[in-house]
């Protein structure tokens, strides 16, 4: 029988007040190999709406669940998630429910930043639930990942434009991935009222209201890179100029989108 890896006591989410300028909150996670084949969490601290809970991981992986403790992000809010995986650490990050981008009182945009840092031989799975762009909202999402050359990453993004029967808000997102200090992927997306023209046309989303992607970075792809492929009518597999593959998908709803990305994950992920 093996003992459970050590973990820092879970710090309760610090109270946060939503001032006129909006709420500011950051969730911080640090993962470290424990020297016994597992992963410890020396830092697990949330604030305001960003509460963190330790969950059962797979194998040597430490699991962390992001739990929403209040409605956010609203217009004017700035939320951040920061996770650092040390050498050889295994970390699985998920969220308990979908994130709803909601309009604020003064029309100011909200921000949601995610920063992941992976050291040598680290592996991180970032698998949050969908982000829903509610009518009247204005959200700017920025995800930045920095990987050491031997690190592995499994990252899923799912975005739903509007709740059932409503138009979406304005959603602007950017994903930047650096591997060994060099750019691997840098892309931007804008959808909804105020986005550049054509976002919903035949060359854009073509009327679909759910879009997502799965990014897998794995040094093993350097020896056996995945082949370009088409998954169904509105999903594509694109090998990147590095040991990585990007799967992009459109769907009429979040359920179908998840089915497409789950199928891709079973093929390219771990």
Automatic annotation (TrEMBL):
The keyword Plastid does not apply. This is Urease accessory protein UreD. It comes from the Bacteria. The keyword Ribosomal protein does not apply. Required for maturation of urease via the functional incorporation of the urease nickel metallocenter. Its main location: cytoplasm. It comes from Streptomyces cirratus. Belongs to the UreD family. UreD, UreF and UreG form a complex that acts as a GTP-hydrolysis-dependent molecular chaperone, activating the urease apoprotein by helping to assemble the nickel containing metallocenter of UreC. The UreE protein probably delivers the nickel. It is found in: Cytoplasm. Keywords: Chaperone, Cytoplasm, Nickel insertion. It holds the Pfam family UreD.
């Amino acid at each position: 029988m093996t003992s459970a890896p050590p973990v820092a006591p879970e710090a309760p989410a610090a109270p946060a007040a939503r001032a006129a300028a909006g709420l500011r909150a950051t969730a911080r996670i640090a993962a470290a190999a424990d020297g016994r084949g597992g992963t410890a969490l020396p830092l697990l601290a949330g604030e305001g709406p960003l509460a963190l809970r330790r969950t059962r991981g797979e194998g040597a992986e430490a699991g962390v669940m992001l739990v929403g403790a209040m409605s956010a992000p609203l217009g004017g809010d700035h939320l951040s998630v920061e996770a650092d995986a040390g050498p050889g650490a295994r970390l699985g990050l998920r969220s308990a429910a979908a994130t709803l981008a909601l309009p604020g009182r003064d029309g100011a945009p909200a921000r949601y930043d995610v920063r992941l840092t992976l050291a040598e031989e680290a592996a991180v799975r970032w698998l949050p639930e969908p982000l829903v762009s509610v009518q009247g909202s204005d959200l700017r999402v920025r995800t930045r990942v920095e990987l050491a050359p031997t690190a592995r990453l499994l990252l899923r993004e799912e975005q739903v434009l509007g709740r059932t029967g409503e138009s979406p808000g304005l959603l602007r997102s950017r994903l930047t991935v650096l591997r060994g200090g060099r750019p691997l992927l840098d892309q931007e997306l804008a959808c909804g009222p105020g986005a550049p023209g054509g976002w919903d046309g035949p060359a854009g989303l073509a009327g679909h209201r759910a879009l997502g992607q799965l990014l897998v970075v794995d040094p093993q792809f350097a020896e056996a890179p995945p082949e370009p492929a088409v998954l169904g009518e509105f999903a594509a597999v694109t090998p990147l100029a590095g040991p990585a593959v990007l799967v992009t998908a459109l769907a009429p709803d979040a359920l179908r989108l998840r089915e497409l990305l789950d199928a891709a994950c079973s093929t390219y992920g771990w």
